[in-house]
Every structure is written in structure tokens, then in C-alpha cells.
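Regression test attached.
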Amino acid sequence: MDFITNLSIGFQTALSAINLIYGFIGCLLGTFIGVLPGLGPVATIAMLLPATYGLPPTSALIMLAGIYYGAAYGGSTTSILLNIPGESSSVVTAIDGYQMSRNGRSGVALFAAAVGSLFAGCIATLILAAFSVPLSKYALKFGPTEYFSLMTLGLVSAVVLSSGSIIKAIAMVIVGLLLGLVGADVNSGVARFTFNLPGLYDGIDFVCVAMGLFGFAEIISNLGPSVDSKGEIRKIGKIWPTRTDLKRMVAPILRGTAIGSALGILPGGGATLASFASYSLEKKASKYSSEFGKGAIEGVAGPESANNAASQTSFIPLLALGIPSNAVMALMVGAMAIHNIQPGPLVMSTNPSLYWGLIASMWIGNLMLVILNLPLIGLWVKLLKIPYRILYPAIMMFCVIGIYSLNNNVFSLYIAIVFMLAGAIFRWLDCEVAPLLLGFVLGPAMEENFGRALLLSRGDFSVFVTRPLSAILLAFSIVLVLLIALPTIKKTRSVAFTEDEK
Amino acid sequence: MKIRNKKDFISGLLFSMLGVFFVLMARKYNFGSLREIGPGFFPIILGIVLMVLGVIIVFYSISVKGNTVYLNALHWKPIIVLSLSIFVFLAVIPNLGFILAVFSLLMISCFAYPGKRKMTELFLITVGLTMLAILVFIIGLKLPINLLPVFFIKKGM
């Protein structure tokens, strides 16, 4: 019964005119950046964070969430039509989607992606609504010891599931944690690592870090020699699938939804991993496995359902536990912080209209996306023709004015330049920046909970393993690290991510 | 000694140096005890871990067998040009106003592009995007920034 009341609160909030408008803007922007290669959800959300200052928090979050799942949705369009994935989560869609295009079946591929995404999005949102309540009730019993272990698990799994070298990813997390400690210490008031700069006293501004590392540094890595080389856009053709197509879509969509929902909940998991997992499963499970790579509809329907489901369920750790599981969720923490909302299990009871409004908006958003994507596909195809040499000055402009407008602050832009340089160097050295951002967001909370746990145990270090829940969480972290060291997993992992590197 | 993986070698050195830096900085802060950790406790522990990780990465990059990884040249041009464009923006905006600041930001950042481009296109991009910026930030979001140079406004009043 509670569930129904909660959802009705949610729909009341989500269906108000202002939230509908911002939800629509979010979905529109998400599709837009999903279609444009070279502009991802992390950079876009970072770019829009300053603009959300003036909005009511619920509308702001609804819009930012729309950008995230909209991008997972729109990314499939370029994969199918151009063989250029708009987002990393659509890399596998390009394999069979583009082949379908070459066979003159672009429309059907787009249809499969849209229907799969809609179904997966609706189910995953239901899972999100159902799971987060018991999980957050449980989380209310967490003490500092459990929180510290939970954050450790979150960071470890983010590292394990990231591409590339694990040890470098761990180092990046630690760099992030250390950067998060810059500023006045909560307990003692000592200003740490501030170099006597007043601008650093309150810590490094999150927006500047995100914008520098993702917004600016992404432009720099995109401005390589191969910029603006594009393929030919195929005709879309007939959209409606045949009966056999429909039959072949059903099972992959169901399996993709299941895999995506499960992997999305994992800290560090998310849309990209889910789509890879779904593709390899479909390839094994399908009767038509010989058609894979030559335009099998299963290879589009499965991964596209999976990535949309995962982008929905990856809100669970954030909303129920307050732990961001990937870079976009870290940005959502930043967005909540702007409005003085501490993400975590308490949001549900202190701010139910925000909580349930956000969830309800996802259903509405998924519907909007289908309308945005299928009938209006021609419009998006035109957008594909915008070359990067026109796009990147626009991104620069929005980022720079956005940061400057925070508080007409010159210092913030200097910080952003520093992080642009850092981001460019880290990318150059193949060090992933997403773990750094997660560490940065969790740094202060980790230190605080660590200190409080030790204070409560009177300096006894063993509390972390003697309290059962904390021990289980830490054991999970260790198992994850050990698992990844196993040779077979190491191999599959490198295969899955080499395609991602492009 | 042959460095097998140059990227890892440099990253490892970088991490170690960062670790040393943070530990040296944090020595000034009270370390505290396990019972009550001070402001120096967490940074020093993390700094030491970072140092050790860096050393391990360096060690792997020279000793363990595996693929040889080369280091491409870092694209300095966009980094320098884009930083410059931001600096100029900051220098221009307080006195010369929003329009000129955005215009110069766009103009300079256009030169970060590696290929050739036509002058007319450059002009259209900068003018068009400047107008878009006025529309979004001044008219839409109503940012309190002077559009025109300060001395123009004074003359007008």
C-alpha cells in the first residue's frame, strides 16, 4: 500500500508542468549528446551543474537524470547509422547495428533499440522503486564502521570494473581521495593543502574538477589528428519490423533487461559493462549465433536493453545508500550538494517528493525518449552532420561561462585549467579519470567515518572485521580484487575493454 | 635497463611524486592517535600508499614481460591554446564586458583545431556562438555581467 502512495506522490511531482518541462529538456539534451560523438553525459552534466543553482532541486535532478539515461538511449543512433558509437555504452550496438544498416535495415535496428530501451527502462525503474526502500531502511542501521567498509567496497568495485590497469586505477582513486581532503578539516579546522589560498579553504570546487577533467580534457583528447573523419550516413528505410524480427527480439530484450538491472546495481557497474555482458550472452545463447557480426537483430536489442536498464538501476546505490557508483552518479552527488541535500537513506523520508518524483520522472522520461527517437529520427540524423570544429568552441564557451557565473569567480577557472592539464596528462598516460572523481567525492566522508569508527572503538583497529556487516563488505572487496587477478577473468576483461578503448 | 611500458613508467613516477608531496605537506598537521585521528592521519597514510603503488607500477613497467607500450607525443597545442583562451576571457571580462570576452574566447579556442579552416567559417562560428551566449546567459539566465565595455556604459549614463 505504501508503495502505491509513494508512487502517487512521485507522479504528482513528476507530472507538474515545471518538472515535465525540465524532464523533457533533460531527455532532449541527453539524446542530443548521445547522438553527437565526442560529447558525453559526464561532460554535459558537469557543464550544466552551474545552471541548476537557480532551479528547484527536484527539477534539477530530474533534468540531470534525463540527460544520463537519454544519452544511453541516443548513443545507439550513431552506432547503427554511422558505425560511430555516440557513447561507450553503445560500442557493441555498432557491431550488428551497423551491419543491419548496410543491409538496408536501419529502421528496424532503430526500432529494436528503442523498444528494448523502453521496456528495459520501465522494468528497471520498477526495480529501483521496489529495491531502494528496504535497502535504505537497512542502511539506516549502518554505523560509521559499516559506512567506511561500504565506501571501500564501492571504490574497489569501481576500480575492478574500470578498463585498463587496476593498480593505476587504485592509484587514481587515492589521488582523488587526497584531493578531496583539501580545505579546512571538519574536526580540527586546520586548513590542509591550501597553500594559503582563500579559494581553497572550503575545498576544491567539485564543478571545477569535473569540468576540467571531463569537459576540457575531453576536448583536448578529441582534438587529435583523426578529428572530423566521418562515414557515410545510411538511409533509415522501413521502421516496422517483420513478425520474425519481433519474435527474435523478445528473448534478448528480456535477458538484456535482467543483466542490465543486475549490473547497474553493482557499484562501479553501469551501462557500458551491461551492454558488453549482454552482447556476449546473446552471442552464446542465440540460435542464430552465426549471424552475429553480420546484422543479427539480437545483437542490437539485447545490449540496448541492457544499457538502458543499467543506467536506471545505477541510481539505487546513490539513492538508497548515498554511494555514487560511477562518474555520472558522482556528479549527481555534486548536484545534490549544491542544494544542500545529503544523498543517502534519509532523503526518502526527509524529501519524499524529490525521491519519488525523480523515480516517477524516469518512466515519463522513457516514454518521451521513444517519441523523441523514433518519429524524429530524421532530425537527429541532420545533427550528425555538425562537425567537431564547430561543436568544441561551443562546449568551451558553455563550460567557461558556466564556471565563471558560479560566483563571478576567477579562481574557479584557474582551478579548472589546472584540472584540464591534469586530465590531459592522465589521459595521455592511460590513467582513467573516473576513479579519481569517485575518490574525490567520497574522500571527506571516508575520512570522517574512519575517524568516528575508531573513536567509537577506542582506537581498536579490529572493529572493521569484528562487526559482522562491515566484515562481509570488506570480504567482498577482497574477493573482488582476488577474482580480477585470476587469469581467465583477466583475459575476458581485456577483450571486453579493448573494444571500448576506441 | 629497458623500459617496457613507458606510459606506466611515467605514471608510476608521477604517483610516487604526488605521494611524497602529500606526505611532506601533511607532516605539518597533527597526526593524532588511532583513538583520535588528527588532520594529518588520513593524508599521510594515503600518501604512503600512493608512493608504494607508484613504485610498484614503475617496477612492473621495467621488469615484467608483456607488450611493449610506446608513448605518443602529448598534444600540447590544444592545451596551450585552450588555456590561453580562458586566460584572455578572464582578462577581458571585468572591464571590456561579456561580448568581447566571449568573442575572444571563441576566436582563440578555434585555433586549437588541428586541421585547416576557412576564415568565413571561423567568423560565422564566433559571431553565431557569441549571440547564442548572449541569448542563453544574459537574456535567459539573466547573469549580472556587463555586456559592453565599462566606459561605454558610463558614457551612456
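Expected vs. actual: identical. Chain B touches chain A through 67 residues (CB under 8 Å).
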